[in-house]
Design a protein that fits this description.
single chain; Glutaredoxin; 7 strands; about 20% strand; Thioredoxin-like_sf; antioxidant activity; oxidoreductase
């Protein structure tokens, strides 16, 4: 797993957006509904929060992503975009965004190296290959300034710590 002070890789991956989820009927998604995410793009405007999670529509991940949805308004004042990241396909991510009214994009680690590049791919158990639950704050210069990894099920990051890390990375703290 990347550590504080490491350079974040400039990953590129498919992304499901709230706009695309709203514009297309569920079950009718195509490649035209998928956008490209490149970490360097949002970093031009300030720090970025990446929340890795095992998979949409699972009990714990649904709870976490909805908690982040509700918390996202707090980050709006800090002007830091939040992206969820999992190995799910972009189409299942679009359906999840639609189902739970998420207002932030979800990045697909399906068939690319984004999960590996951040060092959060689960390597053991029947669920090997999915992402471990982890959060990173990346500063505009691409440096990782905050990390968190779940050590047991049903644990989530302290959003106050994430907010403080974003403020520090943005130079507002």
């Amino acid at each position: 797993m990347l550590e504080i002070g490491d350079d974040a890789p400039d990953v590129t991956a498919p992304m499901a957006t709230p706009e695309a989820a709203r514009e297309t009927d569920r079950g009718s998604y195509t490649g035209d509904d998928v956008r490209e995410f490149s970490l360097s793009d949002p970093l031009e405007d300030g720090p970025v929060v990446l929340a890795f999670y095992p998979g949409v529509f699972s009990r714990t991940c649904t709870r976490e992503l909805c908690e982040l949805r509700d918390w996202k308004a707090d980050l709006a004042d800090l002007d830091a975009p939040l992206y969820g990241v999992s190995v799910d396909s972009p189409w299942s991510l679009l359906a999840f965004i639609d189902e739970y009214d998420l207002q932030y994009p979800l990045v697909s680690g399906f068939n690319n190296d984004v999960i590996d590049d951040f060092g959060v791919r689960r390597e053991d158990s029947i669920m090997r290959g999915i992402a471990n639950r982890a959060v990173f704050v990346v500063a505009p210069d691409g440096t990782v300034t905050y990390t968190w990894k779940a050590t047991e099920p049903l644990t989530f990051p302290d959003t106050d710590e994430v907010e403080a890390a974003v403020a520090e990375a943005a130079g507002t703290k």
